[in-house]
Amino acid sequence: MGCCLSKNGDSKASRIGRWKSTGIVALRDSKLKANLYAFPDEVLDLDTSVRTLDLTHNRLVDIPMEISKLINMQRLILADNLIERLPMNLGKLQSLKVMTLDGNQVTTLPDELGMLVRLERLSISGNLLTCLPETIGSLRNLLLLNVSNNKLKCLPESVGSCFSLEELQANASIAWSRTLRRCLRFKHVKFLEIAIRSN
């Protein structure tokens, strides 16, 4: 079924109506018919209706600045695309609790990431990150941080301020710095995964 145009005549109007009523926009697996690289404009027109946006496994390259209009969105799932960067106004998504960006080509995260104070789960494995912004320490409600399979050599000291952190996934290439040792002292850290890579 999904939310794309189906054989039984699922119209654009009916899709949009369904998205508005459920708050869930699911366009997974290359179902963006018009242009596999383009963010669907009709989603941006939903404004406050969207609670979950799942665009997994498409060919998206850019996320438009207008995504900031989705102010009630709680789950943003953009795994397995071609995204290289996130919009600078990302911090306006104040309701966001889950952000999944695994399997993209993201090289850097904006400082505005630290404004997502309700964020609980951030998974950005399998990208091209070389560093994380210091502002990540402002994510006091963060429970899970997955930065495995990137090009990170260290974690910022500010990670030690993520006092709610329960699960940290990273690579063995990350130096066992004071930051990581500080995280290990957190009594609430229940799961620590250090992946071993040959390179």
Automatic annotation (TrEMBL):
Stretches assigned to the Disease resistance R13L4/SHOC-2-like LRR domain: 89-177
Record key words, sorted: Leucine-rich repeat, Repeat
Any one Pfam family match given in the protein's UniProt record, by short name: LRR_1
InterPro entries: Leu-rich_rpt, Leu-rich_rpt_typical-subtyp, LRR_dom_sf, LRR_domain-containing, LRR_R13L4/SHOC2-like
Superkingdom in the source lineage: Eukaryota
Protein name: Plant intracellular Ras-group-related LRR protein 7
